[in-house]
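Work through this:
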Amino acid sequence: MRVLVAGAGGQLGHDVAAHCTAAGDEVIALDRSQLDVTDRALVHGAISSARPDTVINCAAWTAVDACESDVDRAFAANALSVRWLREACDVTGGHLVTISTDYVFDGTLDRPYHEWDIPSPRSVYGSSKLAGEREATERSAVVRTSWVCGQYGSNMVTTVLRLIKERDSLSFVDDQRGCPTFTADLAPALRRLAVDRRTGVHHLTNGGAVSWFEFVQSIVEFAGKDPQMVTPISTADLDPPRPAPRPANSVLENSVWRAAGLPLLRDHREALAELVAALTSRD
């Protein structure tokens, strides 16, 4: 394939570009400095020039709390940009794969969310990503994922590995649950969607639902520290409180992927152990 990766400077975009290159694809990897996806003229110019078979859109503004105070920027980065990408792909015949989030749900269900559940975002970030899903239209593949971690960016794993060097104890919430997802596993799944030119909404996460507290305990454990240094707190106890509300239940059921007979992503603990080992080996 000839693949254009938007947002290639981020942790997911980096691994998507690397995986596609390793698979033998011709990859045009563009970071924000090379392609501002909020600029319609630039988007159309890049795609009409490259004429990719597939555009994998990893570009987004994911600063959840900052989105609350800058609605226009959030919708430009996460929604209108997808319109420009969809328009350009329509002109060239390229297939669009774009990334969305668990934040499109309010988190109140007592079971995992599947692809046909009705979204109800509680935050500006979630609302902007849902708008991006709608801009993608049914001709694209929309991938909702959650709690993304990789080697080449800032995420919960890198944050915890830094904190355990500075502190003797950590506190994390135990009333928000989700599925950690690792770019090393998500990137190949995104390429599979592109190769097959699949459309519609897909939930894609690694296996195993945990709270943030439990996830951080695992990070600490794999880093060779005592997991008991992590104590649970409630979201209501966060000081200062976060501007954007978080869904209590972020667990995504990968129903479409499973029903299509595609191999589910592995358990998150296996991927986490590999990531911690890779990151700590740099020290």
Notes: The first helix runs from residue 11 to 22. The two ends are 37 Å apart (CA to CA).
